[in-house]
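Reading a protein record of the kind used here takes only a little practice. The integers have meaning only within a learned vocabulary of local backbone shapes. With that in mind, consider the following protein and its fold in token form:
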Amino acid sequence: MQASLTCYGIIPARYESSRFPGKPLVEILGKPMFAWVHERATRSGQFAQVVLATDDDRIVRAATTLGIPALMTSTAHQSGTDRVLEAARLLGAEPDSVVVNIQGDEPALEPNMLVELLAPFTGEDGQLVQATTLACPISRQDASNPDRVKVVRDNLGRALYFSRSLIPHDRDGAGGGEPPLLHIGLYGFRMATLERFAALPQGRLENTEKLEQLRLLENGIPLHVALTRHAGGHGVDRPEDVPLVTKILLEQEK
């Protein structure tokens, strides 16, 4: 990481969840879930600061007890991106700095994925990069699941489109070529780009696919998609996901 690039890691941790209320506080191997995410993000060594952005005093108190910085943000935010932006403003993030939205329900996050996410900002044309995300290869069978978001890239690694449908469509059914790419929901934004993104209205494609990142593409904001060898999708959406993630963490922490 070049010294001239300042990066902030922000973990949105909303208390209310229709499928799992109080999810950030669920205990996994003796620690609340948000503590695992903060530990993994810090371990990457990429950030000037890694903070929680929450809307609930219970999460702030738990974080303070563990020595984890937490910022109280509005309860009115419609998305995690809006919460991340408020926290970045509270931190005084500079326009050219990079703000990373780190999903608060990914306690098994591989720290090197954050290194891969941020690498384009320090590459040969890093000053031109406005936003980044990650993707990894997926089987065509798994890609048929609409909950698994797919992405196609141009020759420079920028996103052309994201979809819940299987893209690109194999018209002839030959099954050749490269495997589909699974989108992994980590995002890095230049602070100025994050401000612009949050100020834009929801787009037609965004509303159709229910994919927030399409707002960038609909407004001509390039999104660089870096490839990772690490698979995503080990998040906690429901209480029944906790045993699986616990098993993964036990394996990783050996």
